[in-house]
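As practice, study what follows.
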Amino acid sequence: MREPVIGVVDLGSDPFRRYMKNKYLAALRAAGAQPLPLGWAADPQAAAAAMARCSGLLLPGGADLAPALYGQAPRPKCGKPCPGRDTAEPLLFAAARAQGKPVLGVCRGCQLLNAVLGGTLYQDLSELPAAHLRHMDFFGRAKHVHTVTLAPGSRLAACREQGAGVQGVNSMHHQALHTAAPGLAVTALSEDGVIEALEASAGPFCVGVQWHPEHLFHRDPFALAIFRAFVQAAQGAPCPPRAAN
């Protein structure tokens, strides 16, 4: 079976964004996929054409979402958005869903799929007084900095050898999911009650995680298993046409 092509939304070209992008590409390759960086689609036709070349879509982390995407005005602690991604990613996500392609959202990507489907966000974790864990720890990105509890019967629990239960994760976010969108089930919570993962209740694979498995896959079997489950779902998705020789 040939490697599925996974579209990865481009992060930009400066050294830091290239470093971050390469983590996703390496994780996908380790899971048996061929990653394909995607430009920022400006209209539904461009998004549909981009997704027609792919068997799945990965929505990576990055800048804060524009609050307009989830029906709010910006508040002081909301970071600067990325207008290009805020336009392109909803289009790519809609195209992937329309074509029956699986989607994996990481950090911002998890927040994006929730917002597009009708959920909301906390613009900063200070809006959630119970959130007392270290959720923003960039320098701890390659280790577990807190735990989450995985829901029984979830796709994420199936990725873990022990099944549902407590799992260590890394953490690099100051925003968080507030209300889950219709059709999305909460499948992981942190010790302080922050929503850490969502999954589509029906249809193709659609999973969002608030942590960053791309920084853990080389040492954490659970992190690698998330990418493998995504890639396996892509292998069963409608196949894009082969490129002409």
In short: The mean pLDDT is 94. Residues 15-30 form the longest helix (16 residues).
